[in-house]
């Protein structure tokens, strides 16, 4: 077997799997090429290492790096459970991280939105790695600018729709309230999955709480999600705290009673056919992790989201 090193910089082809030691080499996502030149790339993976909006434990600024590192465990095989390998068919780049001045927090939302818009303007789709969940707000704003009002599929322990009418507040528990109020997301065509904290005002969003997931056949959960979003453009955001702390302890606001990694894998696979235009995985805080299990789970979710997105890309491109 021929083993390559540092394929994030040395690979000659942007499609295909390269054998590289999981314990060595540059930590690009899934050993993809690090580049800001998106010519001929269909999808870019980018990190937003921001965690100044947290309400409990900080540390998700280290999430993108941790997810990249653990993605190397999957990079030498085709994704399990899918009938195709997007990495062998589609050019996917690691675009690196969003740059911002950490001491000028008020400027960071604009920097994130511009970063994502730059990628989208090149007709390249985006998978974003967080960072705390606030980052989804400017990322969604960039997607809504291109695609119009979006359906949101949100896997989360928290609704993140607590009322907040102060435009300049940066909080990872209120940003979807603002996104709905601003018309970036269509509430009746959106669904939150795994919720297990109280917020009486749902803003008209469909909610499938964690207990319902545990008590309902998973194909029915997926069918319900698909029925809500229909053929509307979908942004899927995955807060790692949607998983139970047994599966994802490395996060800022863990809540008992959550989803299992197996449940999530089954549901994601059965969302095939949704019009997925953007996606993120957020709230991985490595300092609170054990044996990297949270980052491993996040990397698996990220790969599943790429597969889900790639199904539509394959259909639209013959």
Structure commentary:
By secondary structure, this protein is an alpha/beta fold. It has one domain: 3-Layer(aba) Sandwich (Arginase, Chain A). Helices cover 30% and strands 15% of the residues. It is built from 9 helices and 9 strands. A 9-stranded parallel beta sheet has the order 1-3-2-4-9-8-5-6-7, sandwiched between helices. β5, α5 and β6 form a beta-alpha-beta unit. α3 packs across α4, α7 packs across α8 and α8 packs parallel to α9. The longest helix is centred in the last third of the chain and has 24 residues. It starts with 6 loop residues before the first helix and ends with a helix. The mean pLDDT is 95.
How would you name the CATH homologous superfamily?
Ureohydrolase domain
Series of secondary-structure elements, N-terminal to C-terminal: HEEHEHEHEHEEHHEHEH
Mean pLDDT: 95
* Helix/strand class: alpha/beta
CATH 2nd-level architecture: 3-Layer(aba) Sandwich
Distance between the termini: 33 Å
Helical residues, percent: 25-40%
How would you describe the oligomerization state of the chains in this entry? Answer: single chain
How do the strands of the widest beta sheet line up side by side?
1-3-2-4-9-8-5-6-7
CATH class annotation: Alpha Beta
Number of helices: 9
Count of all domains: 1
